[in-house]
Amino acid sequence: GDCFPCAKEGCPMMGHHADKFPYKLERVDQKYFLNTAADEPFATWRQKVFIRLSGVKKTKGDINLVFYDTQGHTKKYEIANGDLSQDEVYTKFLDVEINPKNTTKIEFLWNKAVFSLLWARLGAETVNIIHGEDGHR
Protein backbone atom coordinates (compact mmCIF):
# COMPACT_ATOMS: atom_id res chain seq x y z
CA GLY A 1 0.00 0.00 0.00
CA ASP A 2 2.99 2.36 0.05
CA CYS A 3 3.21 2.81 -3.73
CA PHE A 4 -0.08 4.69 -4.21
CA PRO A 5 -1.26 6.95 -5.73
CA CYS A 6 -0.34 5.56 -9.13
CA ALA A 7 0.90 7.65 -12.03
CA LYS A 8 -1.64 8.65 -14.69
CA GLU A 9 -0.54 5.74 -16.90
CA GLY A 10 -1.35 3.25 -14.13
CA CYS A 11 0.49 1.26 -11.51
CA PRO A 12 3.54 -0.47 -12.99
CA MET A 13 3.28 -4.12 -12.05
CA MET A 14 5.93 -6.69 -11.27
CA GLY A 15 5.47 -10.29 -12.36
CA HIS A 16 2.47 -11.18 -14.50
CA HIS A 17 1.41 -8.51 -17.02
CA ALA A 18 4.43 -6.29 -16.29
CA ASP A 19 4.82 -5.80 -20.06
CA LYS A 20 1.50 -3.89 -20.17
CA PHE A 21 3.18 -0.77 -18.73
CA PRO A 22 5.22 0.73 -21.60
CA TYR A 23 6.51 3.69 -19.56
CA LYS A 24 8.19 1.59 -16.87
CA LEU A 25 11.68 1.95 -18.37
CA GLU A 26 11.36 5.67 -19.10
CA ARG A 27 11.18 6.83 -15.48
CA VAL A 28 13.89 7.08 -12.84
CA ASP A 29 13.30 5.70 -9.33
CA GLN A 30 10.19 3.85 -10.47
CA LYS A 31 8.03 2.22 -7.79
CA TYR A 32 6.41 -1.08 -8.71
CA PHE A 33 3.15 -2.65 -7.61
CA LEU A 34 2.54 -6.31 -6.78
CA ASN A 35 -0.98 -7.41 -5.87
CA THR A 36 -0.95 -10.07 -3.14
CA ALA A 37 -3.16 -11.27 -0.36
CA ALA A 38 -2.47 -10.01 3.16
CA ASP A 39 -1.51 -13.46 4.44
CA GLU A 40 -0.70 -16.95 3.17
CA PRO A 41 -1.23 -18.09 0.52
CA PHE A 42 -0.17 -14.74 -0.92
CA ALA A 43 -1.15 -15.73 -4.47
CA THR A 44 -4.90 -15.95 -3.77
CA TRP A 45 -5.64 -12.73 -5.66
CA ARG A 46 -4.34 -14.33 -8.89
CA GLN A 47 -7.16 -16.59 -10.04
CA LYS A 48 -7.57 -18.91 -13.00
CA VAL A 49 -11.12 -19.16 -14.33
CA PHE A 50 -12.56 -22.03 -16.41
CA ILE A 51 -16.06 -21.64 -17.87
CA ARG A 52 -17.98 -24.25 -19.89
CA LEU A 53 -21.13 -22.87 -21.52
CA SER A 54 -24.60 -24.38 -21.82
CA GLY A 55 -27.62 -23.39 -23.91
CA VAL A 56 -27.23 -22.33 -27.54
CA LYS A 57 -24.56 -24.09 -29.61
CA LYS A 58 -22.96 -20.93 -31.05
CA THR A 59 -23.59 -17.21 -30.63
CA LYS A 60 -21.81 -13.84 -30.57
CA GLY A 61 -21.36 -11.80 -27.43
CA ASP A 62 -19.28 -11.68 -24.28
CA ILE A 63 -19.16 -13.53 -20.99
CA ASN A 64 -18.21 -11.84 -17.75
CA LEU A 65 -17.85 -12.61 -14.07
CA VAL A 66 -18.80 -10.05 -11.41
CA PHE A 67 -17.24 -10.42 -7.95
CA TYR A 68 -19.07 -9.05 -4.86
CA ASP A 69 -17.59 -8.59 -1.39
CA THR A 70 -18.83 -8.08 2.16
CA GLN A 71 -18.31 -4.30 1.99
CA GLY A 72 -20.53 -3.82 -1.07
CA HIS A 73 -17.71 -3.53 -3.63
CA THR A 74 -18.14 -5.11 -7.06
CA LYS A 75 -15.71 -5.70 -9.90
CA LYS A 76 -16.54 -7.01 -13.38
CA TYR A 77 -14.07 -9.06 -15.47
CA GLU A 78 -14.47 -10.02 -19.12
CA ILE A 79 -13.64 -13.68 -19.68
CA ALA A 80 -14.29 -13.99 -23.44
CA ASN A 81 -15.91 -12.11 -26.32
CA GLY A 82 -16.77 -12.67 -29.96
CA ASP A 83 -17.93 -16.08 -31.19
CA LEU A 84 -18.96 -18.24 -28.24
CA SER A 85 -19.54 -21.98 -28.39
CA GLN A 86 -20.68 -24.78 -26.10
CA ASP A 87 -17.79 -26.86 -27.41
CA GLU A 88 -15.11 -24.71 -25.78
CA VAL A 89 -13.87 -24.14 -22.25
CA TYR A 90 -13.03 -20.46 -21.75
CA THR A 91 -9.97 -19.98 -19.55
CA LYS A 92 -8.47 -16.77 -18.27
CA PHE A 93 -6.11 -15.60 -15.52
CA LEU A 94 -7.51 -12.72 -13.45
CA ASP A 95 -5.78 -10.42 -11.01
CA VAL A 96 -8.89 -10.01 -8.88
CA GLU A 97 -9.19 -6.76 -6.93
CA ILE A 98 -11.81 -8.18 -4.56
CA ASN A 99 -10.25 -9.95 -1.58
CA PRO A 100 -11.07 -13.68 -1.95
CA LYS A 101 -11.61 -13.95 1.82
CA ASN A 102 -14.36 -11.31 1.62
CA THR A 103 -16.03 -12.53 -1.60
CA THR A 104 -19.72 -13.18 -1.02
CA LYS A 105 -20.90 -13.91 -4.57
CA ILE A 106 -19.58 -14.40 -8.10
CA GLU A 107 -22.14 -13.73 -10.84
CA PHE A 108 -22.05 -15.06 -14.43
CA LEU A 109 -23.18 -12.53 -17.08
CA TRP A 110 -23.74 -13.00 -20.79
CA ASN A 111 -24.31 -10.13 -23.23
CA LYS A 112 -25.49 -10.70 -26.81
CA ALA A 113 -23.57 -8.75 -29.46
CA VAL A 114 -26.25 -9.06 -32.14
CA PHE A 115 -29.99 -8.56 -31.66
CA SER A 116 -31.92 -11.61 -32.78
CA LEU A 117 -35.64 -12.25 -33.07
CA LEU A 118 -34.93 -15.78 -31.93
CA TRP A 119 -34.89 -16.25 -28.17
CA ALA A 120 -31.42 -17.48 -27.36
CA ARG A 121 -30.39 -18.65 -23.92
CA LEU A 122 -26.84 -19.11 -22.74
CA GLY A 123 -25.62 -20.09 -19.34
CA ALA A 124 -22.65 -21.53 -17.55
CA GLU A 125 -22.63 -25.29 -17.27
CA THR A 126 -19.63 -25.00 -14.95
CA VAL A 127 -17.53 -22.17 -13.54
CA ASN A 128 -14.36 -23.28 -11.76
CA ILE A 129 -12.02 -20.79 -10.12
CA ILE A 130 -8.61 -21.90 -8.91
CA HIS A 131 -6.57 -19.63 -6.65
CA GLY A 132 -3.66 -19.76 -4.25
CA GLU A 133 -0.42 -21.66 -4.28
CA ASP A 134 -2.15 -24.94 -3.47
CA GLY A 135 -4.80 -24.56 -6.21
CA HIS A 136 -7.99 -24.36 -4.11
CA ARG A 137 -11.28 -24.21 -6.04
From TrEMBL:
Which Gene3D superfamilies does the UniProt record give? Answer: alpha/beta hydrolase, PLAT/LH2 domain
Residue ranges of every copy of the Lipase domain listed in the record: 1-42
Molecular-function annotations in GO: lipase activity
Which Pfam families does the record associate with it?
Lipase
Protein origin, superkingdom: Eukaryota
- InterPro entries given in the database record: AB_hydrolase_fold, Lipase, PLAT/LH2_dom_sf
Q: What is this protein called?
A: LIPR2 protein
Q: Which organism is it from?
A: Malurus elegans (Red-winged fairywren)
| Recorded name of the encoding gene | Pnliprp2
